[in-house]
Amino acid sequence: xxxxxxxxFSVFSAVVHAQQVSVLAPxxxxxxxxxxxxxxxxxxPQTRSVVLDASWRSAHxxxxxxxxxxxxxxxxxxxxxxxxxAKVCAVDSADYAGQYGITTxxxxxxxxxxxxxxxxxxxxxxVFLLESDNKYQKFSLKNREFAFDVDASQLPCGLKxxxxxxxxxxDGGSSKFPDNKAGAKFGTGxxxxxxxxxxxxxxxxxxxxxxxxxxxxxxxxxxxxGACCTEVNLWEANQxxxxxxxxxCIQKARCDNxxxxxxxxDRYNSFCDKDGCDYNSHRLNDxxxxxxxxxxxxxxxxxxxxxxxxxxxxxTGNLVEIRxxxxxxxxxxxxxxxxxxxxPPHDSLTDGFCSAQKSAFGDRNYFEEMGGLSRVGRVMDxxxxxxxxxxxxxxxxxxxxxxxxxxxxxxxxxxxxxxxCSLTSGNPTDLEAESPNASVTFSNIRYGDIGSTYPTRSGxxx
Length: 462
Description:
8 helices, mainly beta, 4-stranded antiparallel sheet, single chain, disordered C terminus
């Protein structure tokens, strides 16, 4: 959910020639070191960088300092229609630390929740990993392993950190859509399985048609178009709860109606499985694994390892399992096992687990209808883009992750309780007032052969 700039940016903010290359102020991406690993060759550093999602940026007219977009307000004099707006308006370059609270140091990335600055206030952020200045890094994950360290100790109920992979174009869509000259360099092209309507620039156009605030929060706005694509979220978590989830889509597309977008009551007609198949240990009735002082102590840094298993243990095989391992204080911690009557004691995402969980929780198995893990695996063949974020949730207050959801369901029903947070927690207005300094730090990102990203035997790993 984009809830970014609450106060107008000054018209004198540095601008780039949106949907064009900057000539007035450079877009300087914060550097971030990641590591590529082999089983016995160790982990070798790679210099990369991160770029801010374009939907957090303001925009100005190319030829003047006239505002096109500030916060969630489109200038309707300049932006008469989506195509013209994209042609005459420029997405602004980013002051990452000063305006957005985004900083890097070596292999560490810190995202701050609220950042006050001279031109206003920014809330939350999302960044993508770049391979080069104009290209997102694509990760081929099948028969591979991905690991990272994370410190989520500063995240209260209702505020989440996220590390996810989505089916974005490597260039941000600039080759497909001629009016999008900004591309990956300025963070364009975001999509996910929720078909988000908050993505402000889509297919080289401004998403300004039917642009209005949601009924639950006037600072959360949405437009006519949604950006749908397959998503694998390896980490959605705060101090109290965590989940990893696979979301297949039958196609990557811009949706323009409530049925294809899966809006409101048409959730199960969408291009995408919006529920996904999730592994949340608390929801699966293991309340000892994750939290303050528990087996995985959320007051400390955590190493998160995810393995993508294929049927024949090759990168070209069918994806059949997404396996999770944790490491903390030098100790490897296996994922919890399901403790729900009627569900076999799985400890990873498989089609069998997803089917059994959906049945036990009384949920429609749209995951299977959208193709399940096999569909997710086919999308992985083209590579996925890595995004990291810190976000609140104006519509559902994050209860689907860390509380009781749906809130009107009996908490004794299997799958309803997802965490320890109360029904009154997670209001963004309260969070901004009470926890403005909340932050998440991702670090030591590694990828490579299975078993290569954490010590498994002498001489191997990193």
